[in-house]
Amino acid sequence: MLKFRKFPSKVGPNTRPLTLANDSRFTRVGKFLEKTKLDELPQLWNVVRGDMAIVGPRPEVPNFEACFADRFHRVLDYRPGIFGPSQMAFLAEGTFYPPDQDPLDFYREVLFPAKAALDLAYYPSRTIFGDIKWALRGVLAVCGTDLRTPVTHVRNASAPEPAGAIGGE
């Protein structure tokens, strides 16, 4: 998956694979790219190549491969995408991490299951009109129109909501 770099090149593969709000690793340009979501623009090339779809579950980094075990393995049945329910619900994902909890644990235990539940609720019955809606919502969000499904209750969650309970379709 191609993206513009938001961090200095000296940030290597052994650093935290998550981006938190006000991440100290951002370059000046990286802060702008993160705020505008323009770092995602190169993914259009992935769509042209057939590696990604316009609408699909958010691709994950290899650090979170174990998250796809058991009930979430079915997310891998769908081509990863730039836009979709979980991308819109977690557009500002970096703001969800509680300061008193390890971000990696919080992602694995709370955020990933919530995102996967949204994907598994939408993609099995997706329609072309639904995909157009998610793509338009994503483009509008990047342009500054906030159409996200609120998920503020995830911050204090200790377990994910049931599939489809967090909003979206």
Please tag this protein with its features.
globular; disordered C terminus; mainly alpha; 2 strands; 169 residues; two-stranded parallel sheet; 33% helix
SSE topology:
Blueprint (H helix, E strand, L loop, with lengths): L27 H9 L6 H7 L3 E3 L25 E3 L1 H5 L13 H20 L5 H15 L27
Describe the structure.
- The chain has 169 residues and is mainly alpha-helical.
- Helix content is 33%, strand content 4%.
- It is built from 5 helices and 2 strands; from the N terminus they run H-H-E-E-H-H-H.
- Strands 1-2 form a two-stranded parallel ribbon.
- The radius of gyration is 15 Å and the shape is globular.
Q: Strand order within the widest sheet?
A: 1-2
Q: How confident overall, as mean pLDDT?
A: 83
Q: Please tell me how large the radius of gyration is.
A: 15 Å
Q: How far is it from the N-terminal to the C-terminal residue, by CA?
A: 26 Å
Q: Report the sheet-strand fraction.
A: under 5%
Q: Helical stretch count?
A: 5
> Which secondary-structure class do the elements indicate?
mainly alpha
Low-pLDDT regions: 155-169
The helix-strand sequence is: HHEEHHH
Biggest sheet layout: 2 strands, parallel
